[in-house]
């Protein structure tokens, strides 16, 4: 704001977060039933954008069977003690970008 006494003007500043892109994509893995499946994706920058993991079309959340971590630009999904029912596509989405394995 600028105030000269009898006149006043204001302006606003709007800062937008640059869009993060996926620079290290997911890799296919094969393992035995009962093992842990670890998937990693690396982004171009740290971001506050929503990032989401999917098994097929089902969004995943951290719980006793799935561990989801974000450390800096690295995003990790660990599927604990996989079973045959866990076979299928895994995908990671951030903004308009997707990686799948």
Automatic annotation (TrEMBL):
Transmembrane segments: none
InterPro entries: Ig-like_dom, Ig-like_dom_sf, Ig-like_fold, Ig_I-set, Obscurin/Obscurin-like_Reg
Domain Ig-like: 18-101
Subcellular location, record wording: Cytoplasm
GO CC annotations on file: cytoplasm
Assigned keywords, A-Z: Cytoplasm, Disulfide bond, Phosphoprotein
Origin superkingdom: Eukaryota
Identification of the protein by name: OBSCN protein
Native source organism of the sequence: Balaeniceps rex
Lineage: Eukaryota, Metazoa, Chordata, Craniata, Vertebrata
């Amino acid at each position: 704001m600028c105030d000269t006494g009898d006149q006043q003007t204001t302006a606003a500043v709007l800062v937008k977060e640059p869009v993060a892109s996926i620079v290290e994509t997911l890799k296919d893995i094969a393992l035995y039933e009962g093992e842990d499946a670890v998937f990693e994706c690396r982004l171009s920058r740290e971001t506050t954008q929503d990032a989401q993991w999917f098994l097929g079309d089902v969004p995943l959340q951290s719980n006793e069977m799935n561990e989801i971590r974000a450390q800096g630009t690295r995003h990790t999904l660990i599927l604990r003690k996989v079973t045959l029912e866990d076979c299928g596509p895994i995908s990671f989405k951030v903004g308009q970008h997707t990686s799948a394995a």
